[in-house]
Design brief:
By secondary structure, the protein is α+β, with helices and mostly antiparallel strands. Helix content is 31%, strand content 17%. The longest helix is centred in the N-terminal third of the chain and has 19 residues. It starts with 5 loop residues before the first helix and ends with a strand.
Length: 249
């Protein structure tokens, strides 16, 4: 009597197959799978030794770092313009802000605090000497009144918060601080580079009777040229509410 179910017949035929024939059919497949799993495409890790040799495996050596893993970038230094948000960075590039101040000037401190509180990246330059004052006038400022600020091509003297804010708004600066939390403002620097010290040298046995030992001592001394230092500024407040310090020579 014929079998009613063809599925059962196939199963019985498989079980009745000789063991040697089954082994002969499975061994090539197992060998092929082993070769595939041992290839680089199926390895879990890949590392390069000091001599440049490449090794693949399922376990990396101790302390190895998998290839292709990005190294964490170092934190950007504080005060770096590259870390600024787009809106603030664009305004700073198009209309850079430079604050000019002088020593012992309360309005200058208020102006710097105002720029910092609003989150305006800026440079601070101090007018300390007569040479600095000449350079300050050369920038287009008619009077030695401080603080002064340059916002792009606009120049303002005397600290008047609302007037400064209007100019900053027009330049595209955000109304509220968007500086990174780790941002640090640089300390004020002199407006001009200090003049180099003059060195006086005298040859041994000159008309003044300087011997060789005295000449060596003179060569190590630097005669700093005298400068006209700026007098202490006098702070005034006008009726419009702007505060400034004026200096005269």
């Amino acid at each position: 009597m014929p079998e009613p179910c063809t599925g059962r017949r196939a199963a019985r035929a498989f079980l009745a197959a000789p063991l040697g024939g089954l082994r002969g059919a499975l061994l090539p497949a197992i060998a092929l799978a082993a070769v595939a799993l041992s290839s680089p495409a199926f390895a879990q890790f890949k590392w390069v030794a000091a001599d440049g040799s490449v090794t693949y495996g399922d376990r990396p050596p101790p302390g190895a770092r998998p290839l292709g893993k990005p190294v964490a970038a170092a934190a950007s230094p504080a005060g770096n313009a590259a870390t600024l948000p787009y809106e603030l960075r664009t305004a700073a590039q198009r209309h850079p802000v430079v604050l000019y101040l002088t020593a012992d000037c309360p309005p200058c401190e208020q102006a710097r605090e105002h720029l910092s509180r609003r989150g305006i990246p800026h440079e601070a330059r101090e007018v300390r000497t007569a040479r600095d004052a000449d350079a300050f006038r050369a920038l287009g400022f008619s009077t030695l009144s401080f603080p002064a600020v340059r916002i792009g091509s606009e120049r303002l003297t005397g600290f008047e918060p609302s007037g400064w804010d209007r100019s900053l708004d027009a330049a595209g600066y955000p109304k509220e601080s968007k500086l990174p939390r780790n941002w640090r403002f640089a300390k004020p620097e002199p407006l001009t580079v200090p003049e180099p010290a003059a060195v006086s040298l005298e040859a041994p046995g000159n008309a003044n009777g300087t011997n060789a030992a005295d000449a060596d001592a003179v060569a190590t001394q630097a005669a700093v040229p005298t400068r006209r230092e700026l007098p202490r500024p006098r702070a005034d407040a006008s009726a419009a509410g702007s505060a400034e310090a004026s200096i005269r020579f």
